[in-house]
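chain below, 487 aa
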Amino acid sequence: MSADRLPRWRVAMFSLPAIPIAAMGLPLTVYLPPFYGEADMGLSLATVGWIFMLARFWDVFTDPVLGAVSDEVSSRWGRRRHWIVLSAPILMLSAWMLFMPSAPVTAGYVLFWLFFLYVGWTLITICHMSWGAELSLDYDERSAIQGSREAALIFGMLTVLALPALIEMLGEDVGSALKVESMGWFIIVMLPLTIWAACYFVGEPHYTDKPQTQNISLRQLARKIGATFREIWVTIYKNRLIRHLLIADILASGAPAITGALYIYFAVYVMELPMAASLLLLVYFVTGFLGVPFWIKISHWSGKHRALAYASIYGAISLPLVIFFPRGEFWWLFVGNSLYGIAYGASSFLLRSMMADVTDHDYLETGERRTGLYYSLLTMTQKVAAALAVGITYPLLDVIGFTPKAGANSPETLNQLLYIYVGFPAVFMLLAAYVIWRFPLGRAAQAELRRRIEAKEAGHSEHYVSDAEAAIVQYGSSGGIADRPAD
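prediction:
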């Protein structure tokens, strides 16, 4: 890894696959659950909730497996790019089957193709995040790289959201099938184009911790995977830094996961804006896109963990404002989504950048680069949050008697839906701010970690551990990576 900064155009090329990643992730959270919950699809809301929750938990299982595989099995391209290329046909076929189904469908059909999709999803997300973390050792450049990736994610959301928004602007209620199909085609076209651009124009760093393992046997790989599951629990148990981040991530990711799962029902039935739901969701992501540079600046000023806390507190205050908005008023929800959207982009890129710093600590402690494993833990917690969001809220909709049909719900039922939409995310965001506020690995400690990594890779001996690094060692693990020498 070079100490030189990457040219901006290469950072932009690296970020491109995040566009179809987001274009697939957004419908999976916001559009597909309500789409499969429609009466003509043949599934109840509770069944849809359980299907999407089980699929997400399957994704949790595959994360550490594929994270370990990506760390161990290299090619002449490096560790990450060949796996990203492999994910493309898996995702393209899955998108075809899930976004363009023939109604009615069975629970088994949806579950199978979701399982298959999440294999490709895990490959591309873990390898893309790990690749980004390994492109630089610099504290602030990592934020810039992950911020660029987050901007591409939001751009992908904006673009894929523009499709149903344009359909709504035609002025006719064409239903959700055409909207979902348009998103599917966008994903199928964009995946191969963006993956080719990133893999062709952006290289991978040279790794000094161990040689490439192109010829690892299946038996060795199976043992490695088994060891990985043990390693996950040992890592979480021993390393308070990673526990800190994972708890914060479940909470910070859970808030938008809940609002995303319920947004269509909230906008259509509570706010009575069925012909503007996608357009107003687009507004939310536009402000999220515009907010990313702001949160990058805040992180440079206050540190990443404090910036995340500020964003979470702001989101917890701005979201409940919709309780006081009149129904059927476009501009009121326009303002509400704009205010709440400002906080959207912060948590994802800040947590990814903080995880890159934690992997530095782990490298000095273990002598191994386990970036894929660590990012698999981060994606695991995000998926647990997403699983619980739809797995809990959709059965709750059945409990309160909600029916996704115009005129079928009482005012009391709609108010209960509103309180679920607002209350759970606000509490999650406040808890996330509380958890992350005292995270100890800030700029000074990471600079010390970077100095020691550079000395280690240059073959230099280390004679001094700073007070900042000593505090991280004490906090981060039970045994520590070094003892402070006696005076």
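Residues 139-169 form the longest helix (31 residues). Confidence is low (pLDDT under 50) at residues 208-213, 461-475, 477-487.
thats it, cya
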